[in-house]
Prior knowledge:
Layout: E1 3-4, E2 24-26, H1 34-41, E3 53-54, H2 59-82, H3 90-106, E4 109-112, E5 116-121, E6 127-132, E7 136-142, H4 145-149, E8 152-159, E9 169-175, H5 176-191
Antiparallel strand pairs: 1-2, 3-4, 4-5, 5-6, 7-8, 8-9
Helix pairs in contact: 2-3
Amino acid sequence: MSVRVETAGGHGSPEAGPRKPREWLAPIVRRSAVPALVREVLPGFDVEGLDWHSLHPRAFRRALKPALIIGAAMTLPLFGLFGWFAILVLPIISAWMTVVAWKGVQHMQWTVADDAVVFRSGWLWRNVTIAPVVKIQTVACTESPFDRRAMMAGVRVDTAGASERSHRVAIPYLARETAKALHERLSAQAAQTTFRW
């Protein structure tokens, strides 16, 4: 595994010029050594004893529709090259996008502890993000028109020091009540905690 830590002010500023990133804590580390490493960075945090929660039971159906639309859009350029023979590729791309949606939803899980919110995702390249409550800057509850129709919502957490290429805590396809409860809990925890850089 690789372990990265993001800190506020670690990305440089336009006035001061770019700084070398201070992100990689352990570019390569055995999976068995990660819990001890996490405890060094976040004292008392037990990454092995987390109670993970899955997404909404209908999350796959909700994720499948955009995946199939993207798959259909990927075949459009082929029509210019191969004409109507390109339609033979559509079932293959649709099957692949179905697998991508299924595996993506299956491997997305989240949990919240007294001092952090944790999100994991990915089935080929797996990512786990631990966002300590003391680093939370904003918590947002998001609903697209499709989410509202499915009675779902998502929760996004932004932290100090997170870069644009970070694996963010952005939990989609939750039951609306679950998303609102999680949003309220994290907002209350962040509001009652003294922010530390």
